[in-house]
């Protein structure tokens, strides 16, 4: 029996009778086969066009996309390196600088610099899954890195301000000897050389020949430069950042330009030793007072063996060092500039 033959049951004959095919049946069958072949051919052409056959423009776009993905991978790697370096700076910030300046550490919550609100990366969702994931990760890492850098920059600005304030305070501490010469009378109770009674000596006396230079022991501003009956010629300097006042008495003369309101620097000559006022011989009487006017032992502040001459030599060496460093920096910049040409 042929596979394409069809039959129907005839009750009158009580048997199956073969269905006779017409030309119409053959035409319909042929049309169906041709239509199916056309559809299959169209699908094949479309698949070849989409998955195998590409134009030069499409090939260029695909190559460009691959290059961009590779570049994003490199950027991600560099951001990871920068993030690790930033972590090192943050640890140094916490374990060194803030402890050194006795500042409160930045909390971990603040260090995370999180943000809220709507998703800022929705625009990447329109792209393919791989591209969207890569772009989203890159953008998130970059944004967080920028926030961390901004936070660290703010921290360093705060540290810089504190360091500058500490530096100003240190420069205003009365830390050096006001003149060359030995100390002949210390701070405390003693028999007054003129009044011949027990009296509090509110400073220290340096033995020095008349006319020996007297220098400011710290940066400050002159608040008094005049003659008095007890101290003779006297200069007082206020050091507001450190909270102290220094007094230099029994001077033979006050240096030119030293007057009330004048700014002076540590090591600058402000007067010359003498024997004016209530004094028995040429010397310098030197005092240190706090903000309330209470006198303090000047030896608490003076760095050992830091005479005016020693301080001047130290300043000269520091200036020579700064000059060498500046010249070395200029030379290095010049070499890099020549190498880049």
Characterise the protein shown here.
This protein is α+β, with helices and mostly antiparallel strands. The chain has 3 domains: 7-50; 69-172; 183-315, Glucose Permease (Domain IIA), CATH 2.70.70.10. The protein has 5 helices and 14 strands. Strands 3, 6, 7, 8, 9, 10, 11, 12, 13 and 14 form a 10-stranded antiparallel sheet that branches.
Features:
341 residues, alpha+beta, 5 helices, 14 strands
Which fold name fills CATH's third level, the topology of the largest domain?
Answer: Glucose Permease (Domain IIA)
Assign the CATH class of the largest domain: Mainly Beta
Integer average pLDDT: 78
| Number of E strands | 14
Biggest pleated-sheet summary: 10 strands, antiparallel
Strand content: 15-25%
- How much helical structure, as a percent, in the residues? 40-55%
Distance between the termini: 94 Å
Residue windows where pLDDT falls under 50 for at least 5 positions = none
Number of domains: 3
Shape: rod-shaped
Instruction: Summarize the helix and strand pattern as letters.
Output: EEHHHHEEEEEEEEEEEEH
Indicate the topology.
Blueprint: E1 7-10, E2 15-18, H1 23-52, H2 56-100, H3 108-111, H4 129-172, E3 183-185, E4 188-191, E5 198-201, E6 204-207, E7 213-215, E8 220-228, E9 232-239, E10 244-254, E11 263-264, E12 269-273, E13 283-289, E14 295-296, H5 308-340
Antiparallel strand pairs: 1-2, 3-6, 4-5, 6-13, 7-12, 8-9, 8-11, 9-10, 10-12, 10-13, 13-14
Helix pairs in contact: 2-4
């Amino acid at each position: 029996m042929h596979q394409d033959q069809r039959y129907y049951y005839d009750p009158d004959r009580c048997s199956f009778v073969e269905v006779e095919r017409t030309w119409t049946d053959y035409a319909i069958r042929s049309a169906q086969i041709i239509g199916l072949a056309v559809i299959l051919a169209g699908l094949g052409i479309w698949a070849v066009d989409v998955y195998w056959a590409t134009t030069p423009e499409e090939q260029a776009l695909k190559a460009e996309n691959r290059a961009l993905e590779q570049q994003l991978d490199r950027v991600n790697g560099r951001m990871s390196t920068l993030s690790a370096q930033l972590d090192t700076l943050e640890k140094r910030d916490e374990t060194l600088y803030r402890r050194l300046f006795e500042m409160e550490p930045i909390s971990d919550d603040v260090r995370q610099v999180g943000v809220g609100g709507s998703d800022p990366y929705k625009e990447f969702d329109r792209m393919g899954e791989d591209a969207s994931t890569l772009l989203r990760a890159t953008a998130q890492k970059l944004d967080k890195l920028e926030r961390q850098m901004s936070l660290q920059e703010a921290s360093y600005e705060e540290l810089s301000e504190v360091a500058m304030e500490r530096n100003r305070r240190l420069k205003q501490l009365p830390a050096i000897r006001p003149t060359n010469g030995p100390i002949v009378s210390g701070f405390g109770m003693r028999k007054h050389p003129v009044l011949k009674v027990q009296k509090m000596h509110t400073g220290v006396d340096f033995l020095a020949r008349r006319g020996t230079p007297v220098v400011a022991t710290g940066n400050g501003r002159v608040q008094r430069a005049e003659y008095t009956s007890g101290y003779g010629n006297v200069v007082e300097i206020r050091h507001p950042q450190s909270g102290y006042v220094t007094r230099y008495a029994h001077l033979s003369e006050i240096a030119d330009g030293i007057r009330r309101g004048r700014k002076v620097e540590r090591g600058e000559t402000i007067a010359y030793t003498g024997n004016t006022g209530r004094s028995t011989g040429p010397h310098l009487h030197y005092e240190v007072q706090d903000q309330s006017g209470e006198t303090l032992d000047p030896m608490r502040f003076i760095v050992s063996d830091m005479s005016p001459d020693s301080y001047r030599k130290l300043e000269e060496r520091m200036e020579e060092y700064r000059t060498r460093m500046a010249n070395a920096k200029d030379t290095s910049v010049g070499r890099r500039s020549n190498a880049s040409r």
